[in-house]
From TrEMBL:
One of its GO terms (biological process) is tRNA wobble position uridine thiolation. One of its GO terms (cellular component) is sulfurtransferase complex. It comes from the Bacteria. Gene3D superfamilies: DsrEFH-like. This is tRNA 2-thiouridine synthesizing protein B.
Amino acid sequence: MLHILNKPPHSEAAAQMLSTVAEGDGILLIEDAVQALLHADWQGWDAAADVSVCVLKEDAASRGLSGAALNSQAILVDMEGFVELTEQHTKILSWY
């Protein structure tokens, strides 16, 4: 399953998402969720051992977080990569 999060990393939506993520899932951080790049303590980074955590490059850049994205364990994806992620996962759940 692909989990798409657009809320900040310490929001209720993020907490609910993390409680449902399972091994082999993917997480895509978009919009305000890219702020997770500023929080090394975000629980999503702990889940990265079992799931892939991706960050939408355009949203990171628009928030001045491109440098943080390069120094993180997140996988940067552009809009084409976003589409590819949706094609790779049979189920998609958006957390808004």
